[in-house]
Design a protein that fits this description.
alpha+beta; Sulfite Oxidase, Chain A, domain 2; Immunoglobulin-like; five-stranded mixed β-sheet; five-stranded antiparallel β-sheet; 11 helices; 19 strands; globular
């Protein structure tokens, strides 16, 4: 085994040191060239939709951490293989490292907004890894007995120490590079200094009867720290307020450019809106409700005067991600806004600071662009966006749905009156009724909490007289237009999941 592990260790040390050096270069000279992040982003782009959905389904908002961990495992395994190959059949190990560097170069230059210079860190990682691997494997060969030097010219202890020191230096460099590259820390400090203006128009007061006091029921307003996060950014963009600009262009009579200070000076409005991810499974938790502060997008578009032929706005994030939003959804009476505040605070960095889009009634993949910097007025037949290029539908209206929060599936409850409760939503339409079914019995009407608006979810509760045994509870909602939630089961692809949420409980 030593014949494998020693060269494998040399390969891992070489690659870790090369990547660490590259991360330092990226942090201090080429901010968009991090090999870790560019390769990770490329993998996200290339992964088929079903795999993305499987990862989100398994790990939820921890999908980024899983991707980075999986990428690290693959890199370490490949580095170990390179070390062994270099020992038994040189120069295949160095060739393998070179190929890995080439992947990093391709990933860097193909990212939106990147150029050739952004490939420099990946090229440095490959060159450093190749040179270090050749050096360490040469040292390993010198530890082996030979006719010329029967005792070897280098002690194995020295080889092990040198390999460990190389790997350690790489880890330290990687940590320093990642820490130094965290521009979002600077943005975080700037965020702390932001003082949001008082809204010119406050959100309608939340009715006293809008929330039920039932343990386990989702709170009416989702705390910022608990709000779901699904996006493609491996590293949160660090945008300082003075550097932010929004450009409205394309099929318009007049281009409009807006700074953060100019945005804050406008008469901002509050609104409470529920956002939902298209990846939310039936009964899933990729949904949240918040009170947002922002400026209506329709007013800014009115300044630009879109062409009568336009039917879509292509919004672009600082990191290059795009969404295609139907133009009418940004110009009608719904409260589609450029949001700067969330639940009374400046937007959290991970939720789009300094500015994001919030559009009631549409799934986030066609509307909720974080770190937004561009609104291009165009047409669906001329441009496509990040997820529509990957097989998702163009328009993405949110589907009527409902969820049981309590009791949780698999729980035991005591016989007698049991509180069954959850939330239901049909953004920009509203929910008018919720019904619950026990096993195969009749649908029974639940009690709805008061509505905040048509753009938010509603809590509901149902008093169930539970009898001993195993039971299945199912919920369905009816929207304000009389549409009953469908029982047809459909996957999240291409435009959101359908079906009825059920939980299985045991009554004792």
């Amino acid at each position: 085994m030593a014949d494998f592990w020693r060269p494998a260790a040399a390969g891992v040390a070489s690659v870790v040191a090369g990547v660490g050096l590259a991360e330092l270069v990226s942090a201090f000279a080429v901010q968009n060239g991090s090999p870790v992040l560019t390769v990770g982003a490329l993998l996200i782009d290339l992964a088929p939709a079903w795999l993305k959905e499987a990862v989100i389904g398994l790990f939820g908002t921890g999908d980024k951490a899983f991707l980075i961990s999986a990428l690290a495992v693959v890199v370490v395994a490949g580095a170990a293989l390179a070390g062994w190959l270099e020992r038994v059949r040189p120069p295949l190990g160095r060739v393998l490292i070179g190929l890995g560097g080439a992947v990093g170069v391709v990933a860097a230059v193909t990212r939106a907004g990147n150029g050739v210079v952004d490939a420099l860190p990946s090229a440095i990682a490959a060159v450093a890894g190749i040179l270090l691997l050749g050096w360490l494997i040469g040292m390993l060969r010198d530890t082996q007995p030979s006719r010329v030097a029967p005792r070897g010219r280098v002690s194995r202890r020295r080889f092990v120490g040198t390999t460990a020191a190389t790997a350690g230096a790489g880890v330290v460099a990687l940590a320093i590079g990642q820490a130094a590259a965290a521009g979002f820390r600077t943005a975080s400090a700037a965020r702390e200094a932001v003082r949001l203006p008082s809204p010119a128009r406050t959100a309608p007061p939340i009715p006293p009867g809008a929330s039920f006091d039932i343990p386990g029921l989702s709170p009416l307003l989702t705390p910022n720290a608990d709000f779901y996060r699904i996006d493609t950014a491996l590293q949160i963009p660090g945008i300082e307020p003075q550097d932010w600009r929004l450009r409205i262009h394309g099929m318009v009579d007049k281009e409009v450019e807006l700074t953060f200070a100019e945005l804050l000076a406008l008469p901002l409005e509050e609104s409470t809106t529920t956002l939902t991810c298209v990846s939310n499974e039936v009964g899933g938790d990729l949904i949240g409700n918040a009170t947002w502060l922002g400026y209506p997008i329709r007013h800014l578009l009115a300044r630009a005067k879109p062409s009568s032929d336009a039917d879509m706005v292509l919004s672009t994030s600082q990191d290059g991600w795009t969404a295609s939003t139907p133009l009418p959804a940004l110009t009608d009476d719904r409260n589609a806004i450029l949001a700067v505040g969330m639940n009374g605070q400046p937007l959290p960095l991970e939720h789009g600071y300094p500015v994001r889009m919030v559009v009631p009634g549409l799934y986030g993949y066609v509307s909720a662009t974080k770190w937004v910097v561009s609104l291009e007025v165009t047409r669906f037949d001329r441009h496509t966006a990040y997820w529509t290029d990957r097989g998702w539908s163009e328009r993405g209206p949110v589907k009527l749905s409902s969820r049981i929060d309590v009791p949780a599936s698999g729980r035991q409850v005591k016989a007698g009156t049991v509180a069954v409760a959850g939330v239901a939503w049909s953004q920009h339409v509203g929910v008018s009724a919720v019904h619950v079914r026990v096993d195969d019995g009749p649908w029974q009407e639940a009690t709805l909490a008061d509505a905040i608006s048509a753009d938010t979810w509603r809590q509901w509760r149902f008093a169930w007289e539970a009898t001993p045994g195993a039971h299945t509870l199912t919920v369905r909602a009816t929207d304000a237009e009389g549409l009953v939630q469908t029982s047809a089961v459909r996957d999240v692809v291409p435009d959101g999941a359908t079906g009825l949420h059920s939980v299985r409980v045991t009554v004792v």
